[in-house]
Specification:
single chain, 137 residues, alpha+beta, 3 helices, 42% strand, elongated
């Protein structure tokens, strides 16, 4: 598992509102359709070394997408708020070999999934993207 992903999962898990609401349903990359809601999915969607005018640097940049899922739109927005409060403005957070120096919310949007086979209820998603600057030991 990518070290930045481990750090993000750990930080989200430490938020008491998030851990109470999702009961450990924090997934890397995807969740099965049958899994209980609410849930969170997170994935690195882009990454590269941070350029410097003085040459190479150990600072890295990742764009991370974090999705909040719930069957109730209001509760989904509440979960997004907890994610945003945890990740937007995060700085100097170290877990394992990774130090997050800066995390900023750059985009978010709402959408929903209608059931196609009558099996799963309507599901709402608030997706948010964060620009994270970090170093790895």
């Amino acid at each position: 598992m990518n070290p930045i992903i481990k750090s993000i999962r750990r930080k989200l898990s430490l938020n008491s509102n998030i851990s109470t609401n999702v009961s450990g349903r924090i997934y890397d990359t995807m969740r099965s359709q049958e899994s209980a809601l609410p849930a969170i999915i997170y994935v690195v969607i882009a990454g590269e070394n941070e350029p410097s005018t003085s040459g190479n640097t150990t600072l890295q940049r990742a764009r991370v997408q974090i999705d909040a899922f719930d069957s109730d739109l209001s509760d989904c927005w509440d979960l997004f708020g907890d994610i945003r409060d945890t990740m937007d403005g995060l700085s100097d957070y170290t877990f394992s070999s990774v130090t997050i120096h800066s995390s900023r919310l750059v985009n978010y949007r709402e959408d929903h999934y209608s059931p196609t086979d009558g099996g799963e209820a309507l599901t709402f998603r608030i997706t948010s993207d964060y620009r994270i600057l970090f170093t790895e030991d």
